[in-house]
């Protein structure tokens, strides 16, 4: 008897809560479909790939080949700025009077727009977002891949820049998805 009473109360609870507009499913159970064309100036496709992956993890948006919306993203700038320096050294390890860069900040600036393909109008944007990442490096190329005066760096500038580009695109892709999640898009 107790078991059926509990079951009845639970069923009544669900019916009453459902009738008041409460739902067990979130509002994002029907996500917006978004086409993501290749991002302008994304030569290796790394940011495009990261953005599609982050969108597929979003609750509000799903990447699609032919979506209701088209997400247009363009890389406006990809800048490097030297932010850390050290004194240069000769082969014997003696310090010279020359200062060389040892730490660089790479920054990406993008412009994001969301186009409603059904209505043929702008649904959101344009908005500009940026992300940056700092990395250490050796100024000179080392043949044995180990820098004698490394101070924590193990690669030359080009290898270090290539290594930091992946986390930078991941960070920027997440910022784009967070911006879209925060935006109010009407269906």
Commentary on this structure:
With 187 residues, this protein is α/β, with parallel strands linked by helices. The protein has helices at 2-19, 46-57, 157-182; strands at residues 32-35, 61-63, 69-89, 95-116, 121-136. The protein has one domain: Double Stranded RNA Binding Domain. Strand 3 and strand 4 form a beta hairpin.
Order of helices and strands: HEHEEEEH
Q: Do you know the CATH architecture? A: 2-Layer Sandwich
Which class do the helix and strand fractions yield?
alpha/beta
Q: Based on CA inertia axes, which overall geometry fits? A: elongated
Number of domain units: 1
Largest beta-sheet details? 5 strands, mixed
Indicate the CATH topology.
Answer: Double Stranded RNA Binding Domain
Euclidean distance between termini CA atoms: 48 Å
The CATH homologous superfamily name equals: Lipoprotein like domain
Mean pLDDT: 78
Read across the widest sheet, the strand sequence of neighbours is 2-1-3-4-5
- The value of Rg in angstroms is 25 Å
Beta strand %: 35-45%
Q: Which residue ranges are poorly predicted, with pLDDT under 50 across at least 5 consecutive positions?
A: 15-28, 143-147
Helix segment tally: 3
């Amino acid at each position: 008897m107790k078991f059926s009473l509990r079951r009845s109360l639970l069923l009544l609870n669900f019916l009453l809560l459902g009738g008041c507009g409460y739902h067990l499913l979130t509002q994002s159970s029907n996500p917006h479909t978004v086409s993501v064309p290749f991002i302008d100036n994304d030569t290796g496709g790394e940011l495009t790939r990261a953005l599609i992956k982050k969108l597929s993890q979003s609750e509000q948006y799903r990447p699609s080949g032919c979506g209701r919306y088209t997400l247009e993203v363009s890389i406006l700038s990809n800048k490097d700025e030297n932010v850390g320096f050290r004194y240069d050294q000769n082969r014997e390890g003696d310090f010279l009077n020359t200062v060389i860069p040892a730490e660089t900040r790479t920054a990406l600036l993008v412009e994001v727009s969301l186009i409603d393909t059904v209505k043929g109008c702008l649904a959101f944007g344009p908005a500009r977002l940026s992300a940056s990442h700092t990395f250490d490096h050796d100024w000179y190329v080392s043949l044995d891949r180990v820098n004698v005066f490394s101070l924590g760096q193990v690669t030359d500038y080009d290898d270090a820049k290539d290594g930091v580009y992946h986390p930078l695109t991941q960070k920027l892709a997440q910022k784009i998805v967070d911006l879209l999640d925060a935006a109010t898009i009407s269906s």
